[in-house]
């Protein structure tokens, strides 16, 4: 939020900064005059870049620069906006960009790309991501500001504005450290800077003498402040994370690791890495609908210039668009589908052997969804023989036969109604894709939260990416699977042998929160695409930060709800911004409705997670555990939490359901960074 007072102060600081740069630009021009071999325009570029050194930037130039035979050697500029590999072009003909190509500069671009890579290599050792390295081509004597793939093309008079407006990635000590590290790595360059300003060297230079327009620079400074600083992880990663993001994989690969270990972060950096090395489109796909918006927004902040190279989408969203584009009709009708299943249950399920195991239809509906259709089984023989990974309730042949009859009855009714379920969408898309592949093909398909996909979903994405090097990347954690059923990658025809990476440092949760969450699932084995685990114990390191778990026990629902409202109101009164980093997560949609009403009545601003896109909003977020996948919040409230410990030896389908509920609850708990509030209702207390 921008209030009047601080906006005024920010405006004054921006003006002072712009004026100071203008003053120092005169000094820089004086200094550049000594470079007698350089042309007038080259001297002006040199002076412009030198000016920035007065504001903490570091300019690394070829030792012979400028005005020598190697005068056009690229330079490196390091400042709060990151690292810029700079090339200066001094030609009378204005630059012309047509169809994404800059005519007549192939050599310059190739030279810059080579230096940018060398700089990336060098800074990777500091844990710096390539997103913070940007090639910049400065055109002396012309005005422009354009992005051409990774390279920003700017006129000499536009450079200062562009650099001052960039979101802030590095603080002053980081600028120094990165510049020193580069100077050491490139012995041919040296640091070139204006002398430190003497305290008595005051005003004197008018705006007219400046190398740039002071008002434009002032606006640029303000713009960079309003962007807010770029989150640290967008610039610096753990060296292991950088190595994984940049790794060369000869075929499909996999990244796994417990909750909060930076899997998505690495996936996003991987997308950048591939976008800068290929020309084809890149897909970043996940199962949940709301997550692509949030991830797309993060990516935009991280590497906005590559945003049009990466398509953030949900799997079903993509499949539906694909089918529509191909003229294939899809009739997704949830109500009709549910009705078809209910009737099938009444006809052949309710009186069958299935009721010996579970008398309610839900378990069997999931069996059809996740085991039969989700794995693309088409014959009873296949189903009789299939290993039902992830489903703990054993089924005899008679039960499987009964399930198959239920499936056939459901399919018949569904077809008669001419409607599709979600599995049909993927099955149709896979069939179409195999007959007519997409063109141009995807350079890479990065799948986040892969544990939630069905086998057919993975086959579909594999069909899109193929086995090409660096093509398919599967990111996920079986412990966070929120849907029943499972499969082995080999069944999807995806081989990842020797191409796996595991992340182990949790950067998100305060240690007490992670401990509490892991305790809930520690006895539950889970299925992890390439095999089961014996239990839920994980090796995770936490990064130190303060945080706590708050248990709020109540005797009645009314008491519990009052506790919740009080706790949230107190948080809002404590800190006006606190609500924007707070989420209330609920087990069911009914609970979401209930708590949404309760909190709105209490006067608290509430935003549904369904509509959330990661943008800061002065409202607390509310949604189901499932909707919270992949997200995180400073404070998380789980009303009516009442998680139960594992009770072995009970009813098998009830045990299976309880384990699934614990995994869903685990996901919700691990969304909390600093505070996890667990509300329980216990009438016997
Ligand atoms: N190197 C790092 N330095 C600082 N913070 C980091 C780093 N890597 C990741 N993080 C932060 O850790 C948090 C978790 O990252 P991320 O969401 O990528 O984890 P994840 O493994 O995908 O989580 P989950 O599986 O629980 O959804 C984020 O806040 C992210 O910004």
Structural summary, described in words:
There is one protein chain. This protein has about 675 residues and is α/β, with parallel strands linked by helices. The protein folds into 4 domains: about 5-95 and about 105-230, no CATH class; about 235-330 and about 435-505, Rossmann fold; about 335-420; about 520-680, P-loop containing nucleotide triphosphate hydrolases (Rossmann fold), CATH 3.40.50. The strands form 5 sheets. A 7-stranded mixed β-sheet has the order 7-8-6-3-2-1-9, with helices on both faces. Strands 12-11-13-14-10-15 form a 6-stranded parallel β-sheet, with helices on both faces. β11, α9 (about 290-305) and β12 form a beta-alpha-beta unit. The longest helix has 29 residues, at about 5-30. The chain is globular and about 95 Å long. Adenosine-5'-triphosphate (ATP) binds near residues 259, 260 and 507. Adenosine-5'-triphosphate binds next to α8.
